Amino acid sequence: MLEGIENYFVEGIEVYTKTTSKDDYGADIETWTKDRDITGRLRPLRGNERFVSGAEHQISTHRVYTHDDDITENDKIKYENTEYDVVFVSNPMTFNSFYQIDLEVIK
Question: Are 60 and 87 in contact (CB under 8 A)?
């Protein structure tokens, strides 16, 4: 583990997961449910920083650093009344104890 990094972490970062069900007419209904709170460090990125995945371009507006290894691109993050889509999860240098999660603010 990176020594001292947790001194910069904050509590109260919420992770939301999506469940899909069908209504009476067979249409999909998406429901976002709070899964858990994590600790981490949330910071804004420079404007228009882009990450490429195949042919698809994603724009990351923020990044969260955390020890939580159970966040996926299907989740959302909420912190201080701002919601973010998770666009990319990285395990830098494969430390398996420190993760960078790129986010896009939901407007």
Answer: yes
Residue with tokens 């976002």: 32
CB atoms closer than 10 angstroms to residue 88: 16
Beta strand 99-105 with 82-90 is: antiparallel
Q: Which amino acid is at 99?
A: Y
**Residue-wise pLDDT tens for the chain (107 aa)?**
445 555 788 999 999 999 999 999 999 999 999 999 999 999 998 655 455 555 455 577 999 999 998 999 999 999 999 999 999 999 887 777 789 999 999 87
Delineate the domains of the chain, giving CATH numbers in brackets: 11-105 (2.40.10.270)
Q: Which residue in 93, 104, 33, 38 sits closest to 71, CA to CA?
A: 38
